[in-house]
Amino acid sequence: MLKQKTARGPVNGVFVFTNAPASVEILGYAGFDYVVIDTEHGPNDIAAVENMIRAAETSDITPIIRVTKNDPTYILRVMDIGARGVLVPQVNSADEARSAVRSVRYHPRGDRGLAGIVRAARYGFTPLQDYIADTNDNSLVIVQAEDIKVVAALDEILAVDGVDGVLVGPADLSHSMGIPGRFDDPEFNRVVHDIVARTVKAGKLAGMFCFDAAQAKYWRDKGVRLVLVGSDTMLFAAAAGALARDLKSN
User: Fold this and answer.
1) In the Cβ-directed half-sphere of 60, how many Cα atoms lie within 13 Å?
2) Are 61 and 27 in contact (CB under 8 A)?
3) DSSP 3-state percent helix, strand, coil across the chain (nearest 5)
4) Greatest CA span in the chain, whole angstroms?
5) What is the pLDDT of residue 250?
6) Is 175 a residue of the active site?
């Protein structure tokens, strides 16, 4: 379980933006701990997500779904098809964080609608009480810090029972600060380091989207345990570009 792995140390993941179960399988076989299957910016509908979750299970990699928005109905659907957690965008208040938690977990820790015959419950083959306990104990609720408004509310968000971690989204965060893509800006860096430090101090999982292994190592040394490095599209583009350049130079 990914939650147990994070208790032992950092875990490494990759975003999956394409509608490609094979990409998920390959990342699992390569040795990554988790994938974040994207439905916010990616083209993935619920049927595609279900097949990618199956692919994750085949190659022993944990499937986390970035949902389109903090919507109880959509979160219920991805959890019912077997997601092991959600990454929820644009969470800027404690109330929004509590809504995400309630959408993932069952009574008494949430108010998600219960159906014991869904795929996540092995279509009814998992005893109902075992299924409820597993979901409540092992599903991850990660909220994204991607708006400057989150800074003022961060301590209250971190205090919400059931929020497992906070992942920084650099692109949207920089955009909300009026400096889109200027990741070397001193004020941007101060804000990001502040979010990570406060998350670690609160005993929650700090997460960071990184562009390469060197950046991942930097943030691991700062206490980040949810390391998210690039995406399937970025990996493919980098490999394809390098190969094309090599071919043209020979």
Assistant:
1) 3
2) yes
3) 50, 15, 35
4) 64
5) 78
6) no
Q: Which residue, among 68, 91, 67, has the nearest Cα to 79 in the 3D structure?
A: 67
Secondary structure (DSSP) of 145-208: E-STTHHHHHHHHHTSTT--EEEE-HHHHHHHTT-TT-TT-HHHHHHHHHHHHHHHHTTSEEEE
DSSP label of 69:
S
Structure tokens at 52: 């990618």
At 206 the pLDDT is 98
Tell me which residue has tokens 């394809």.
240
Asked whether 193 and 201 are in contact (CB, 8 A), the reply is no
pLDDT tens figures, 119-157: 999 999 999 999 999 999 999 999 999 999 999 999 999
Yes or no: is domain 2-249 CATH 2.60.120.1690?
A: no
- Identify whether the C-beta of residue 87 lies closer than 8 Å to the C-beta of residue 167: yes
Query: Taking the CA of residue 183 as centre, how many other CA atoms within 13 Å lie in the half-sphere pointing to its CB?
Result: 11
How do the domains of the chain map onto residue ranges? 2-249
**pLDDT per residue over 199-220, tens digit each?**
999 999 999 999 999 999 999 9
Below-50 pLDDT ranges, the chain: none
